[in-house]
Amino acid sequence: MSTRRPPASAGLTLLECLVVIAVFGVVAGGASFVWPRLASAFHLEAALRGLAADLQDTRVLAVAAAARARLVFVRGTARYRLERADDDGTFTLTAERRLPPGVVVADVNSGGDLVFSARGNAENGTVVLADRRGRRATLRLNQRGRVTVERGRT
Asked: What number of CA atoms fall less than 13 Å from residue 109's CA on the CB side?
């Protein structure tokens, strides 16, 4: 006697294919409504991380160069500048950064710049970033050069 099994079906039926395509369509449609919110949140988070890293890098630059260094912000724009003081005290551009799409500097105090001394100390300062959906996040710089982040402020 032979113990051969009948061949298994190797493909999908037309109905199964249509069901899979319909489910995929529903998932993709739902994702299209959620994506703008997620992208906006990702851009704001990326801006916070980049700005916090630039603040720390500017502090290190000030200490290493034994000269003042600062970040300069303009309210309502999507960019900021990193500058270092020369021997005569004149600030020169070190780098210019652009915030991720849809993120702008909503508010900044301390005259629009955050300055680090040659010892790494700083002036108290606050920078508020906002995204297209109105979500805000605040970076605070204290006198010791420590950066703190407050997310989700509106």
From this structure: 9
Where do the H-state alpha helices sit in the chain? 14-65
For the chain, what is the domain count?
Answer: 1
Are the C-beta atoms of 130 and 141 separated by less than 8 Å?
Answer: no
Q: Which residue has the tokens 């407050």?
A: 150
For 46-56, the pLDDT digits (tens) are 999 999 999 99
Range of the domain at 136: 14-153
CA–CA dist 21, 86 (Å, integer): 64
Which CATH number fits the domain that encloses residue 41? 3.55.40.10
Q: Are 127 and 103 in contact (CB under 8 A)?
A: no
- The per-residue pLDDT for range 79-114, each reduced to its tens digit, is 999 999 998 889 999 999 999 999 999 999 877 899
Please tell me the distance from the alpha carbon of residue 97 to that of residue 129, in angstroms, as a whole number: 14
